[in-house]
Amino acid sequence: MAKLTVVVTGAQGQLGRDMAELLQAQGHDVHGFGRQELDITDPAQAEARLAAIRPDAIVHAAAYTKVDQAETDREEARRVNGEGARILAVVAERIGAKLVYVSTDYVFNGQGTHPYEEQEPTDPINEYGRSKLAGEEAVKQHCSRFFVVRTSWVYGAHGQNFVKTMLKLAEDRSELGVVNDQFGCPTFTKDLAAVIAELVQTEKYGVYHVSNSGSCSWHEFAVAIFELAGKTHVKVNPISSSEFPRPAKRPAYSVFAHKALADNGFGPMRHWKEALADYFAERRVGVN
Fold first, then answer.
1. Contact 210/269 with Cβ under 8 angstroms?
2. Distance set, CA 197 to CA 4, 187, 192 (Å)
3. Domains by residue range for the chain, with CATH
4. CA of 11: how far to CAs of 15, 34, 144, 154, in Å?
C-alpha cells in the first residue's frame, strides 16, 4: 500500500472522523479539516490550504445534511453541496489530486423496483437530493480524477443518525411508530470508509454505489436495532409515510446494486445486519 497524503473535509462528522482515523491507522499522512479550519465555499481559502499541502487525494465528506431544512434553505444547501464541491473539484484538478465526493441515494426518485445501478437516470425529489446531484455534476465537469461515492442510511459512532435516534427515543418510550414503506440500505461508516480508502489507492475513477448489502425498511431497521441493543420490550409499530409527514419527500425505494465495485474488482459489501452487530459490539466495549 502506497503512503498517501490525504485531506479529509468534514473531519468532525460521523464519516469524516472514521475516515481520518482509518487512513491514519493505515499509515497515511492525513489532514482533517472541520468547517472552522476549511470553508469549502471560499475559493481563495480552499486554494491556499490545499495548494500548501498538495495532497494526493481529497475525501470530501463535508456536506449540508439537513434534509428537511433544505426545502426552505435551498440556497445554502446548493452553496455548500453544489458550489463547495465545484470549488474543491477545480482546486483538485489544478494540483493533481484525486477527489472523492460522497453523495447520496437521494439523487434517485425512489420509484424503482430493482436495486439502482450507477448509470441509471437520476431524478431527485427533494432539495437536498438536488443539491447533492449538483455537486456530483460539478465534480464530473471540473475534475478528471474523481470518485463519486453514493451511499445511504449512514450510521456510526460519531454524530447523529437513525440508530442513535431510536436508542434515545427508547429511553422514555415503550412504543414507537416507524415507517415501513421506505426501503434502502443501512451503511456503517467504518465499512464505507474502508471502501473509500481502497478506492483512493487506485485510478479506477467513476461513480460507485457503496452501502452494506441487503435491504430493509426503516421499520425493519428499527426492530433490528432494538434486538441488538437488548431493548426487545420496545414495541415498534409499522406506519406509512403519509402518517409521518415531513417537509422533504423521501424516496420510497433507494436500494443499491454494487455493480461498479464488482466490475472494478473490489470485494462484496457485507450484509447490513452483520455490520450493525459489529457497531453494537464496539459500543459495548467502548471502541470508537
1. yes
2. 10, 16, 9
3. 5-161+185-214+255-270 (3.40.50.720)
4. 8, 5, 24, 15
Average pLDDT of the chain is: 96
Residues in the chain: 288
Q: Report the alpha-carbon distance of residue 189 to residue 13 in Å, rounded.
A: 10
Q: How many CB atoms lie within 10 A of CB 156?
A: 23
Cα torsion angle, 12, 18, 24, 25, sign: positive
Q: Which helix (H) or strand (E) holds 169?
A: helix 162-169
244 vs 212, residue with greater confidence: 212
208 counts as catalytic: no
Pair 107, 136: CB distance under 8 Å: yes
Single out the catalytic residue among 106, 128, 208, 279: 128
Quote the pTM value. Answer: 0.96
Instruction: Name residue 175's beta-bridge partners.
Output: 235
Task: Please give, one letter per residue, the 3-state secondary structure of 28-85.
Answer: CEEEEECCCCCCCCCHHHHHHHHHHHCCCEEEECCCCCCCCHHHCCHHHHHHHHHHHH
Distances (CA, A) of 213 to 4, 104, 270: 29, 16, 6
Residue 129, phi then psi, degrees to nearest 5: -60, -40
Q: For the residues 101-126, what does the mean pLDDT come to?
A: 97
pLDDT digits (tens, 9 = 90+) for 70-111: 999 999 999 999 999 999 999 999 999 999 999 999 999 999
